[in-house]
Amino acid sequence: MPELVEVELSRRLCIALDGRRVQNARLVDPHASAREPAELAHALRGATFASPRRRGKLLLLDTDQHTLGLHFGMTGRLVLDDEWAIERLVYSSQRRVDHWIRLIVELFDGGRLEIHDPRRLARVFLDPDEDALGPDAATLTLKQFRSVLAGRGRGVAVKARLLDQARVAGVGNLIADEVLWRAGIAPGRLTTSLSDDEVRGLHRQLRATIGILLRHGGSHTGRLMGSRLPGGLCPFDDHPLSVSVVGGRTTYWCPLHQR
To answer: 215: burial class by Cβ within 10 Å (0-12, 13-18, 19+)?
Structure first.
């Protein structure tokens, strides 16, 4: 499913939009936006794209008039000028099916941007509230990370905090499990139980893991991914992985080295 890594790859493809002008925008699936199709089309028609941005899992396509925000849900993918931003998306079909198209943006130069989503969970925003999101996980400073983990009373599970987009933007289930596995921290540990050394190590692994996954081409390319199945063994120590639910998400982790 699209996490920070997949959205960043989409952003990089959309660099090719810079300076190009919108001829028409069609919200093919009205379910994908709180805006009416005619309103969205009117807002974007004639607009010129600037350099694309990203905050967490939200792709931000600025124009000289508005900002088009794209969230890919669980199975959404972006196509620009017939080029897919990502070749493979785990847990989604790789087929190109016309009735899965949710948004079409046609450009004056003949180019075209599309959002494909089999499960209809992708969302299209006009001038989205970026302040509803926490700082981006890829550029998160140690000071910001300490603030992310800070909690009251007994704290919350560290994985649940990593998944909270209002606290830190961009981490999804696959990235969270990979980071915690690499850091040797159990996903159910309370944030208040982490030592300063553990906080530093977790922050370092978060930034490093995102870089590794970007270089490898997707959130599904982590070392833990191949073991995320019943009977899977830890790639580090061959111990059977535990499966639990943390933060509402299925979680794979090693009880031997993740403490």
So the answer is: exposed
